[in-house]
TrEMBL record:
Species: Candidatus Thermochlorobacter aerophilus
Pfam families: Sigma54_activat
Classification via PANTHER family: PROTEIN KINASE PRKA, PROTEIN PRKA
Domain Sigma-54 factor interaction: 172-231
GO biological process per UniProt: regulation of DNA-templated transcription
GO molecular function: ATP binding; protein kinase activity
Record's protein name: Magnesium chelatase
Annotated InterPro entries: P-loop_NTPase, Sigma_54_int
Origin superkingdom: Bacteria
Length: 496
């Protein structure tokens, strides 16, 4: 990799020639810098988790092959993040003819402006150095994107103000793609681009040149193009025309986290958890598992449209809402150190409802009910990991017999969203046998962890139909499951 500390002091074309500097194509730059980073043991895609043995090797192979690329995958699979990290594979600075709109190489000028300037000024032509961050352009494909936006058009105002004829190249207004010359250009959601606009990309992909409004001049661009697309878009909103797909050298399929542990790492990296706040919020590891299980449950739920996908943004937003719920309770109760509770988990519903697309059955059930169902299933998955199986008896008796017997005697526990800790702990500690199970299975280190573990076990028993639960606004009441069922069965049509 080049050292640009001295090179960037060069100000003219003559000085650049004498320095021995040689330009490389964009794809050569990326290839050689990737090789250098790999040899140095440096991660070329920092912050990308879960793709180390799947997507990233394919991506690196495509770069080594000097391919244009499309990343194909459902929403929330870090496609845009990977695309933007490609900039790190460019040289830190490159020289251009000063004032050039299309980053003209001083040794191989393309635009009329750069050619004429070098013709008249020779080695005294001024050059400028642009940073790698200025060599990246991105466009979200929408139906209203035009050829003028991407390629360029004739600028009548420029023609009038400079008294130029329409035959003069200087009347051209360059679009995003030629302005990205000697850099990276990305198009997100490619299928949303109208087919007639996609046709305009064919020459760029194969012949690497553009034509603007019938000008005979061809401008051979040095550019790396990368696209992203959602496979559902092929039939839902649009499609990628076959000739364009054929010209994209490598198609790389992305995916969601394959394990809960990978999902947790992604959420910890992306979610705003460590806040500059007077309140310290602690999130036990098993809560992080529950948050990830919500997404995993959604990705296999019969109520959720699997073709649409369930974005990783769901777990990120859910974790942030979980922390905020505990933070809000601490502010209300003037507490400085809090632990999240199971009751906080049901405050993440807004993070779920906007990020899942429901099939007909899900619409009938209602998005809020589906969200709560997913949370309940996630809790149950983690409950089964840490706690004894409610269906297995020890010496002929359920390990939770003391708890269910306590509820069967007509007792109940009321949990409020903004409950003070001491009231919260006392309410849960009334349940006979609950503390012992929590201490044995969850091994809490302090009173706060014990209280949260006790509520976790109650909710787990509810998810396994061993403890009943009623919800009314911000109050959740745990009670006797059998008594509740019998009461429901015993109520006659006349009583209703």
């Amino acid at each position: 990799m080049r050292d640009f500390r001295d090179l960037t002091k060069i100000k003219t074309l003559g000085e650049l020639k004498r320095s021995g500097y040689r330009t490389r194509s964009v794809k050569d730059e990326m290839r050689e810098n990737l090789i250098a980073k790999t040899k140095a043991g440096e991660n070329p895609f920092p912050g990308i988790i879960g793709y180390e043995r799947t997507v990233l090797p394919q991506l690196q192979n495509a770069i080594l092959s000097k391919h244009d690329i499309i990343l194909l995958g459902l929403r929330g699979q870090a496609k845009t993040k990977m695309i933007r990290l490609m900039v790190n594979l460019l040289d830190e600075y490159i020289p251009i003819v000063k004032g050039s709109e299309i980053n003209d190489d001083p040794f191989k000028p393309l635009s009329k402006y750069a050619r004429e300037r070098i013709l008249h000024e020779g080695d005294d032509t001024e050059i400028a150095w642009i940073h790698r961050s200025e060599r990246y352009a991105e466009k979200l494909a929408t139906p209203d994107v035009t050829i003028a936006d991407l390629i360029g058009d004739i600028d009548p105002i420029k023609a009038a103000s400079q008294k130029l004829t329409y035959a003069d190249e200087n009347v051209i207004h360059f679009g995003l793609i030629p302005r990205s010359n000697r850099g990276i250009f990305a198009i997100n959601e490619l299928p949303d681009l109208q087919p007639r606009i996609q046709v305009g990309l064919l020459n760029i992909m194969q012949e690497k040149d553009i034509q603007i409004r019938g000008f005979q001049v061809r401008i051979p661009l040095d550019i790396f193009i990368i696209y992203s697309a959602n496979p559902e878009d092929y039939t839902n909103r649009g499609n990628i025309i076959t000739p364009l797909k054929d010209r994209i050298d490598s198609q790389i399929i992305t995916h969601y986290p394959k394990t809960i542990e990978i999902g947790i790492k992604i959420t910890e990296q992306e979610a705003w958890i460590n806040r500059n706040s007077e309140v310290k919020v602690t999130v036990p590891y098993y809560f992080k598992e529950i948050i990830e299980h919500i997404a995993f449950e959604a990705r296999r739920s019969e109520y959720v449209d699997q073709k649409s996908g369930v974005s990783a943004r769901l777990t990120i937003s859910a974790m942030e809402n979980l922390v905020s719920s505990a933070e809000r309770r601490a502010i209300i109760n003037d507490e400085s150190d809090v632990l999240v509770r199971i009751s906080d988990l049901f405050m993440v519903v807004p993070a779920i409802t906007g990020k899942i697309e429901l099939v007909y059955e899900g619409e009938q059930e209602g998005v809020i009910n589906v969200a709560k169902l997913l949370i309940g299933k996630a809790i149950n998955q983690v409950f089964k990991k840490y706690c004894p199986d409610p269906n297995k008896k020890v010496q002929g008796q359920s390990p939770y017999a003391a708890i269910t017997n306590w509820f069967s005697q007509g007792n109940q526990v009321d949990i409020y969203d903004d409950m003070k800790f001491e009231d919260y702990f006392k309410a849960l500690d009334r349940v006979k046998g609950l503390r012992e199970i929590a201490e044995k299975t969850m091994q809490p280190k302090n009173k706060a962890e014990l209280a949260t573990a006790m509520e976790f076990i109650l909710e787990g028993l509810h998810q396994n139909s061993m403890v009943g639960k009623d919800e009314l606004d911000s109050v959740r009441t745990y009670n006797d499951m059998i008594g509740k069922i019998m009461s429901s069965v015993g109520s006659s049509k006349y009583e209703r």
